[in-house]
Design a protein that fits this description.
three-stranded mixed β-sheet; 8% helix; Porin; single chain; mainly beta
């Protein structure tokens, strides 16, 4: 008997199959009253990263934001079974940014604007996984609803997802945004509540972005926007002629949604093998309000057309980075991060450099084998339009482990050792076709030090303002099971999705 989610997905695909043959073009307006196709093609949309973009986390007055991140990846090690921080996502979509969704239509059945989408996605594994009972790592129907309300004193916006999960046989509710924004002073904006936050310059690589991420969504084939997980925080923005300042206060630690074995298998250093449903990660999280809090700061300004930013973070490792040897539970040790970034035009493209020092406060000497050492992280990136509606970008990412001799000398017997330096190269290629309705993209990660790789091919077709079809894959390769991407090899999948926006 088919599961409820499978039935729903089947119905969705039957609906779009019936709708495709009867698509009709809109009749042309009389001459002089419309915009011709020629006019539209004279000013095509710029490819991602080369045009103006706005971060929804910033107010409208601030146009000096870094270009959109989809999302970034960070290195793993024998001590970290789940994704550490080091991957960066695409920009947050809001009604103001997503013009296509606006064109699909707004409705006000309850006296306020309501829009969203209904989506089905299915992603079977490309090979069997002996530690997972399900043949698919993704299978769900998702309904997202968004609304917002404006007053003289401020505004409130709400975004919530209802998910019928065919893998877990559960109905989940994900409140992604419930935030109130107001300006007590002309130069100050405050946004409080549940919200998605992001900063930094990486494309799918995070260094100074220590806001929660959803690695399970990213690796299983959900839309890349779900790599950014929501958090409960207060964000203050202060804007002046000298520099702009962002302060984010999170009253209770918000961890990543990391790989724990429930849906995706991972390398378990304690067992010395790949684990999954049979050995899901058990954690002990810092969870006291106002005691286990987080503070993130960013100060930035433009200098001769280049954006310079400095960052600091005071909190905890966002994914498990330690282990209690007595109980076997994974821990989130205390962490401070200090960094900087520079971004701007280089020749015909956009270049960026970002640096971060990870101060592992509970193992500053590097001699505790059950807590991550401190690290230095570096990112160099460049993006350019290679041809008409065809862009490419490359990145080099480095993780340098501090106190490496102390780390090696205190490793437990039989434990797999990390490299002192982990190198990672990325390549993104994006081609727009059919009047930008068809998008072909490929994002690749390759680590020459770990000898592993991760490929993310995707094809997206916007059939109309309402209907979008997407297909793609998550393909993992590695010579060793304990390397960062190698541990996920049995999670390789190919997915198909259908979205109806309203």
């Amino acid at each position: 008997m088919m599961k409820p989610g499978s039935v729903f997905l089947l119905i969705m695909f039957l609906v779009i199959g019936c709708a495709l043959p009867v698509r009709a073009e809109e009749p042309a307006l009389p001459e002089g009253l419309g915009t011709s196709d020629a006019d539209r093609t004279r000013e095509p949309k710029l490819p991602a990263g080369l045009g103006d973009s706005a971060d929804s986390a910033e107010p409208a007055r601030d146009t000096r934001e870094e270009p959109g991140l989809p999302a970034g990846l960070e290195g793993g090690d024998g001590q970290e079974p789940a994704l550490p921080s080091g991957l960066a996502p695409e920009k947050d979509q809001t009604p103001e940014q997503d013009s296509g969704r606006q064109e699909a239509g707004w409705t006000e059945p309850f006296g306020f604007p309501l829009h969203g989408f209904l989506e089905g996605r299915y992603g079977p594994r490309l090979q069997s996984d002996p530690v997972q009972s399900e043949e698919a790592s993704l299978g769900e129907a998702r309904l997202q609803l968004e609304t917002e309300k404006f007053w003289d004193a401020g505004s409130f916006d709400l975004t919530a997802d209802i998910i019928l999960d065919d893998i877990s046989d559960e109905v989940d509710f994900d409140l992604r945004q419930a935030r109130y924004t107001f300006s007590p002073l002309p130069s100050v904006d405050i946004r409080a509540g549940r919200q998605v936050l992001s900063w930094g310059t990486g494309d799918l690589i995070f260094i100074n972005d220590l806001f929660p991420k959803d690695w399970v969504s990213f690796l299983s084939g959900r839309d890349v926007e779900y790599l950014k997980a929501p958090g409960d925080a207060v964000r203050l923005g202060w804007f002046n002629d000298l520099f702009n300042l962002n302060l984010v206060y999170t009253p209770k630690f918000d961890p990543d949604r990391f790989v724990d074995g429930e849906r995706l298998s991972y390398w378990n250093p304690r067992l010395g093998r790949i684990a999954g449903e049979d050995n899901q990660i058990q954690t002990r999280e810092p969870d006291d309000w106002f005691d286990n809090d987080e503070i993130a700061l960013r100060a930035y300004r433009n200098l001769a057309g280049y954006e310079l930013a400095v960052y600091s973070y005071f909190g905890y490792w966002k994914s498990p980075a330690g282990q209690d040897p007595a109980t076997g539970k994974f821990l989130f040790p205390k962490l401070n991060v200090y960094g900087a970034s520079l971004q701007g035009t280089i020749g015909p493209g956009i270049g960026n450099i970002e640096f971060g020092y990870y101060d592992s406060r509970e193992d500053r000497a590097g001699d505790d084998p059950f807590v991550n050492n401190s690290e230095v992280r570096l990112l160099l990136g460049y993006e350019q339009e290679l041809a008409t509606e065809f862009t490419g970008s490359v990145q080099y990412y480095l993780e340098h482990l501090q106190d490496y001799d102390a780390y090696r000398s205190h490793l437990p017997p039989g434990a797999e050792a990390r490299d002192e330096n982990r190198h990672l190269l990325t390549l993104r290629l994006t081609k727009l076709l059919l009047n930008q309705d068809l998008t072909l993209s490929l994002f690749t990660f390759y680590s020459p030090s770990d000898q592993d790789a991760y490929l993310r091919p995707q094809v997206t077709y916007e059939y109309s303002d309402a209907w979008t079809v997407v297909t793609g894959g998550n393909l993992f390769f590695g010579e060793e099971e304990h390397t960062f991407f190698g541990q996920f090899e049995n999670n390789s999948n190919w997915y198909l999705g259908l979205r109806y926006s309203f």
